[in-house]
Amino acid sequence: MLSSLAFSGSTLFGLALGRHSRMTTLGEVMYLERDYHPNLQCSCGERLGECPMWSRVVKQANSQSVDVQFKFDKKWKGVDFDKKGFNFYKFLLINGFRPQRIYRDDQIENYRIRNGNFFNLMGKEFPDTEYFVDLSKTPERMEVLMGSPSIDAYYIHLRRNLKAVYKSNLSRRKMTRKGWGFKMLRESYLLHARERHRRKVFDRVPKSKRITVDFDLFKAQPMQEYRHVLNWLNLQDEEIKDPRSLSIKKQHLYLGNRWLFSSDPNYDVQISESSQKVELNRLERMSFNIFKTLLNPNFKD
Ligand SMILES: [Zn+2]
After folding, report:
1. Which domain holds residue 178?
2. CA distances from 108 to 92, 196, 202 (A)
3. Which residues, including other chains, have CB under 8 Å from residue 278's CB and lie 6 or more apart?
4. What is the CATH classification number for the domain harbouring 86?
5. Is residue 300 situated within a structural domain?
6. What is the pTM of this model?
7. What spacing in Å lies between the alpha carbon of 126 and ligand 1's midpoint?
8. Distance (Å) from CA 282 to ligand 1 centroid
9. Which of the residue ranges 76-80, 131-135, 155-159, 187-191 would you say has the lowest mean pLDDT?
């Protein structure tokens, strides 16, 4: 499972991992159920109803006869911490309340069973895959699944310069009418609070089950960083020439970024080699630093 903030390159990096024959990238598993629709397009170019991977998975999952099943169904409501957007519970979570204190035991337990169920099914359907890559990213999911006896999870922290992530967040159009000054502070607060939360949970993962990859370093020296991850996962090196070209048409993601989808059969995406230098203006820098000082004083970005 990837551990990173939004806009940290997790989809790109996840697809790079998915090029390995023993790894299959699934996208954000926490949204698979609710966002599924047979007419949605898959990155392979097919509709989901025709996609060789998902049509099979959905058929298997929806015909299971277990109590708590993973079901590809829009009506599935899920638990709060899988919901998009920000709410009171998320506020509690990013400020250090553990999910176990906010949600009932049976909700937590069901969540573990359902997800364990799903990964079990995937393991049976795709016996060549040793690792399924989950791009869900949220620390609360990580924390809950960490305690699952049926999921053997490894966590990759994809690190990206926080100022760059902040700048990406500011450039998005969300709620701009609330005023730019306020937005700068709000985004800075959320960024640092989320990062603090992410780090806290990540640090609780046993050392052998976690690794940090710097996304900018990966862009500059892809083979070195890629091998580093393969070694850690005990996987063979496969002579992939450049993991920055993603072979999108051979992979099956249906959630997220629009650049994933194209009807052109030769379409592909390449991760750029260089990272742009990020310059914050004075107000942005001040807003960034206020919450950095308050929330992550010892953290180097
Ligand atoms: Zn597909």
Report:
1. 2-295
2. 16, 23, 19
3. 161, 163, 164, 167
4. 3.40.50
5. no
6. 0.91
7. 14
8. 45
9. 76-80
